[in-house]
Design a protein that fits this description.
Number of helices: 3
Oligomer: single chain
Distance between the termini: 29 Å
Number of strands: 6
Helix content: 25-40%
Strand content: 25-35%
Largest sheet: 4 strands, antiparallel
Strand order of the largest sheet: 4-5-3-6
Shape: globular
C-alpha cells in the first residue's frame, strides 16, 4: 500500500468497487470483456486514478482502485459506467441489445468499500478469484 505525499497532506486511499450488468445478464465475455478492460484502463488514466486490480465474471466486475483525496467516488463510478456503456453499445450494440432491453448495460447501483493495508492482499486475491471455474 503506497503512501503519497501531497501539498499539505499525506494519503493512501484504495476502494474495492463492484457493479453488475443490468438484469445480471451474462454479457461480459469474449471481445466485450477484452474491450471493457481496455476502456476502463483508459478511463482511469483520463481521470487520474489507478486500477490496481480488475477482474470480471460474465455478469459483474470487481476492481481495486487507488485515488487521491480530490476524487469523488460517485464521479469515478459515473465515468467508468457511463463511458464504458456508451462505447460498448456503440461497438457491440446489436449483440448487447439482444440480451438486454431498454438500452441499459449497467445496473444503476454499485458496491464500494474502503481498503486498509491489513485487507488489501485479501481483496486482491478475492478479485482475482472472481472468474468462474
Amino acid at each position: 500500500m503506497e503512501v503519497v505525499k501531497g501539498r499539505g497532506y499525506v494519503y493512501s486511499i484504495q476502494y474495492h468497487i463492484v457493479w453488475c450488468v443490468k438484469y445480471r445478464r451474462d454479457v461480459l465475455n469474449g471481445q466485450v470483456a477484452i474491450k471493457l478492460k481496455e476502456l476502463l484502463t483508459q478511463i482511469s488514466k483520463d481521470n487520474d486514478f489507478q486500477i490496481l486490480e480488475m477482474n470480471m465474471d460474465e455478469d459483474h466486475i470487481h476492481m481495486l482502485i487507488n485515488c487521491t483525496p480530490q476524487h469523488y467516488i460517485p464521479n469515478i463510478i459515473k465515468a467508468m459506467k457511463g463511458v464504458s456503456a456508451r462505447l460498448l453499445m456503440k461497438e457491440f450494440g446489436d449483440d448487447l441489445r439482444s440480451k438486454l432491453w431498454g438500452g441499459h448495460l449497467w445496473n444503476p447501483s454499485y458496491f464500494v468499500a474502503t481498503v486498509s493495508e491489513n485487507t488489501e492482499e485479501q481483496i486482491i486475491e478475492y478479485i482475482r478469484s472472481q472468474k468462474r471455474k
